[in-house]
From TrEMBL:
CDD domains: ABC_TM1139_LivF_branched. PANTHER family: ABC TRANSPORTER ATP-BINDING PROTEIN, HIGH-AFFINITY BRANCHED-CHAIN AMINO ACID TRANSPORT ATP-BINDING PROTEIN LIVF. Signal peptide: none annotated. Residues 8-239 form the ABC transporter domain. Keywords: Amino-acid transport, ATP-binding, Cell membrane, Membrane, Nucleotide-binding, Transport. This is ABC transporter ATP-binding protein. GO terms for molecular function: ATP binding. SUPFAM superfamilies: P-loop containing nucleoside triphosphate hydrolases. The keyword Transport applies. Belongs to the ABC transporter superfamily. It comes from Acidovorax facilis.
Length: 239
């Protein structure tokens, strides 16, 4: 019996901006229920990869299949309807909407998931959001805004959740709270692609890791392999 198709399957992906090519033959697969990290120093192609996945940047070569559909030529809204959600760097919460309005306005159960991310389930993961549900977006701390951005993405009931620098700029105690929440999402079976600089935490969270260097995949493997070979950290991940 053949193995099931990955939820996300990128093969030989190339992309760039104008005449400047950034990605050179990226292969990236994520199975349903898996947590994968995308690693590399700044400027190595992580953001460009994410833009191609969500439809904000059209690939110049190669293919992307998500949830059984070829997405390389689809617009961002069509890809989102297939079940892909992103928590963008910078959070982008609406200052004039309350926490509850954010979560209700974006709610959608179109993917028919058995355990839907409804309002109460999101509040159970992020109890602080329930406490602040009547506060406007601009009345929240940076950590609360990050929780809201994750909760907003979950309210769409995504098949794949992409987290772009989810702990960037947060105080250490708030970062730890975000990591605990991500562990809860993993335990719930949520498929996740995460970009973050805290490799030692990603080793605990993710099942597999993909390292980019100058727009190419230079290493991929599981957490045990990454944790055992600290030369990879020095060669590809430290400044």
């Amino acid at each position: 019996m053949s193995a099931p198709e990955p939820l996300l399957n990128c093969q030989a992906l190339e992309a760039g901006y104008g005449v400047s090519q950034v990605l050179f033959g990226i292969d990236l697969q994520i199975a349903a229920g898996e947590v994968v990290s995308l690693l590399g120093r700044n400027g190595m192609g992580k953001s460009t990869t994410i833009k191609a996945l969500v439809g904000a940047l059209r690939p110049t070569a190669g293919g992307i299949r998500f949830a059984g559909e070829a997405t390389g030529r689809l617009k961002t809204d069509a890809i989102a309807r297939l079940g892909l959600a992103i928590v963008p760097e910078g959070r982008h919460v609406f200052p004039n909407l309350t926490v509850r309005e954010h979560l209700v306005a974006f709610a959608d159960h179109r993917n028919g998931l058995r355990d839907a991310w409804d309002l109460e389930r999101i509040y159970a993961v992020f109890p602080r959001l329930k406490e602040r549900q009547n506060n406007l977006g601009n009345q929240l701390s940076g950590g609360e805004q990050q929780m809201l951005a994750i909760g907003r993405a979950l309210s769409t009931n995504p098949r794949l959740l992409i987290l772009d620098e989810a702990t960037e700029g947060l105080a250490p105690v708030i970062r730890e709270e975000i990591w605990r929440c991500l562990a809860t999402l993993k335990a719930a079976g949520q498929t996740i692609l995460v970009v973050d600089k805290y490799v030692h935490r990603l080793v605990d969270l993710a099942d597999r890791h993909v390292i980019l260097e100058r727009g190419r995949v230079v290493w991929q493997g599981d957490s045990a392999a990454l944790n055992a070979d600290r030369s990879l950290w020095a060669r590809y991940l430290t400044v």
